[in-house]
């Protein structure tokens, strides 16, 4: 069976009345409801004009119904295209133009934005879905049968299209196949010991790999259940931990839990595993969490392009500051600039090969060719080392990228907007350490003497950028530091402004 949904279905409990999830507000959803609701939505999407292979763009708040929609796309052979709910109109236009979806599902609040885009891009249907499950999608789907034949396909066919910003400011569409997601999900279930008796505390967003594929797919492939929360709240997490066995989070979640006086060893007594990813976990957080809860956080490493690549072991030493060992079937190597392999502990370019790795970027053959080696390894853009025991450490990454709260921010996108502001001669955006989000975005600006101020620039950025990309501080400087080749030395800016948020 090559369709990812068919593989999920094979692992559903024999008794479909078994619990799939319970929301933080007490709503109970069974595997039977999951199966039937996703079938109705699949039939609705196909009747609305979508054909297998078409993209379905989804920009909605986290809800139970959003899971139904994800499965509906898979089982009908449609390509699931999730978008961050924080994206603004100027950002959305690019995604719609590039992905060319047949159907868009958005919140009622965003409907007017999409109507203006849809009229230009030939979208066949525009449906709504809100966080409470209301909207035209579920109204329309209710008219359809819960019988739906899963569209069988090749494992290499596209299951999802996700976008990751590029250093040039132009986002790249990442094409993930049914096999990419299946193989990675099966490996994670085995690596992390998931079974039908597990209950995951799910507090992550589901518009990117962590919450969507790592979180949900491990549940579907093990027949487990979840407590489903709209977002992260430390008090709420502590309330639910006694009823769960596994939690997945970004480092920010763990720092906030540690700062909460209610976190005690007792509330974690039923937990068997805490997993962290999407951003580097500080050794201090690792150690403090172990001391306070008695649990050792398991850190892993992945990317949108590859899913998960490495993981500290379930049984064995979990080493602080490392992202663990290569997953089964995944090959990790470190090479120098000429592509030659490097010795243990030497820092070089991290490259990945395995069934989890995507085949290429959406309609960008040149960029795809550039990011793969002749022998099929993907150039991650990260700098890493491998020790004598095989543990991988990420020691750097694409030097400009900022990871704030587990989300990737590429400075060029922000700089292009700031540089268009009247009075700005040039700008440089960097990340500085932040105790809550890991890194925070800082914009350093050279002005022409105009009456520019931080409030004005921040306001313009907020109007055009998702909130997590908006600089937390605007700093003015007479000249940007440059090297002999004229390149801005962002390392010096990071050092100079590293205490700006203290």
CATH architecture identity of the largest domain: 3-Layer(aba) Sandwich
Count of runs of 4 or more consecutive helical residues = 15
Strand content: 15-25%
Mean pLDDT: 93
**By CATH's scheme, which homologous superfamily of the largest domain applies?**
ANL, N-terminal domain
In the CATH hierarchy, the third-tier topology of the largest domain is known as Rossmann fold
Model regions low in confidence, pLDDT < 50 over at least 5 residues: none
Distance between the termini: 54 Å
What spatial order of strands do you see in the largest sheet? Answer: 2-1-10-9-11-12-13-14-15
The biggest sheet, with number of strands, parallel, antiparallel or mixed sense and barrel status, is:
9 strands, mixed
CATH class of the largest domain: Alpha Beta
Protein described:
This protein is an alpha/beta fold and 502 residues long. The chain folds into 3 domains: 4-180, ANL, N-terminal domain (Rossmann fold); 274-396, Luciferase, Domain 3 (Luciferase, domain 3); 402-496, 2-Layer Sandwich (GMP Synthetase, Chain A, domain 3), CATH 3.30.300.30. Helix content is 30%, strand content 25%. The chain has 15 helices and 24 strands. It has helices at residues 4-10, 31-47, 64-75, 89-99, 111-121, 136-141, 178-191, 209-220, 234-240, 251-258, 283-293, 365-370, 411-419, 454-464, 490-496, and strands at 19-23, 28-30, 55-59, 79-82, 103-106, 125-128, 158-164, 172-177, 199-202, 225-228, 246-249, 273-276, 298-303, 307-311, 325-326, 331-335, 348-353, 378-386, 392-396, 402-404, 407-409, 424-434, 438-447, 473-476. It has a 9-stranded mixed beta sheet with strand order 2-1-10-9-11-12-13-14-15. A 4-stranded parallel beta sheet has the order 4-3-5-6, with helices on both faces. A 4-stranded antiparallel beta sheet has the order 16-17-18-19, with no helix packed on it. α8 (209-220) links the parallel β9 and β10. α2 crosses α3 and α4 runs parallel beside α5 (111-121). The protein is globular. The model has no long low-confidence stretch (mean pLDDT 93).
